[in-house]
Amino acid sequence: MSPANPFRPDWSAIDTVLLDLDGTLLDQKYDNYIWRDLVPQRYALARGLELHAACAQIARLFAERSHTLDWYSIDYWTRTLGVDIGELHREVRSHVGWLPGAREFLVRMRAAGKRLVLLTNSHPIALAVKHEETGVLDLLDAAATSHEFGAPKEDPRFWDAALERFGYDPKRSLFADDNAAMLDAARLAGIGWVVGVRHWDSRGSKREHAPGPAVDAVNDL
Q: Domain of 187: which CATH number?
């Protein structure tokens, strides 16, 4: 949808709002700073490498685990890289923050009587830090991470487990996420309303989600 013709869901046809966390509710700049900047710096220091060599090694390791649960696991990467990534999350926790309008969107949805469910690949260590800084879980009715289900959000098994746990009607549910792979998985799982979020990182990054509907921020819904 273009800015001149913004996407508007039919809220009378929606009971449950399924939401991603990072890049949808919370500003992805926190995670990007950790994984793109701090992790390579600390890995280079620990291994005695030049930064560009450290980045190349990490990129290769990341690519090998792409779209697996390990890719999202703080425990896995702490072991693999020899860097305490949980500690890095706590070290820079002041970078955690809401995306513009996201908190207000949750308040508005709750006032409208919608059930709010968080579905995230965020590791429990990171989720705990983010909740401590924002109180995000207090504004939701339920939450689950892929680490509880044993499969990442782009895997059909995640959606089977989510449906079993939360018992929502897929056709009367809306799912919002900033990642195309997750949006595709939600469509395959039969979610009736699947919406991409363009502005996932306040430092300026933007994602397009054609051909499906998209909004700049969840508060535009």
A: 3.40.50.1000
Residues 133 and 36 in one domain: no
Taking the CB of residue 135, how many other CB atoms lie within 10 A of it?
Answer: 10
Inter-residue contact 157 to 151 (CB < 8 Å):
yes
- The C-alpha atoms of residue 54 and residue 59 are separated, in whole angstroms, by 9
DSSP letter assigned to residue 116: E
User: What is the C-alpha to C-alpha distance for residues 150 and 148, in angstroms, rounded to an integer?
Assistant: 6
| Residue 85 near residue 58, CB atoms below 8 Å | no
Q: Token pair for residue 10?
A: 């039919």
Residue count (the chain): 221
Give the tens place of pLDDT for each residue, 79-98: 999 999 999 999 999 999 99
Cα within 13 Å of Cα(159), Cβ side: 19
- Domains contained in the chain, number: 2
Q: What is the pLDDT of residues 18-66, one digit of tens each?
A: 999 999 999 999 999 999 999 999 999 999 999 999 999 999 999 999 9
Q: Which of 94, 116, 144 is the last residue of a domain?
A: 94
Angle between the N-to-C axes of helices 39-47 and 74-81, in degrees from 0 to 180, rounded to the nearest 10? 30
> 119 with 187, same domain?
yes
Q: Is 93 left (phi over 0), alpha (psi -120 to 50) or beta?
A: alpha
Distance CA 2, CA 213 (A): 9
What range defines the domain where residue 49 resides?
Answer: 31-94
User: What contacts 115, CB < 8 A, 6 or more positions away?
Assistant: 15, 16, 17, 141, 142, 168
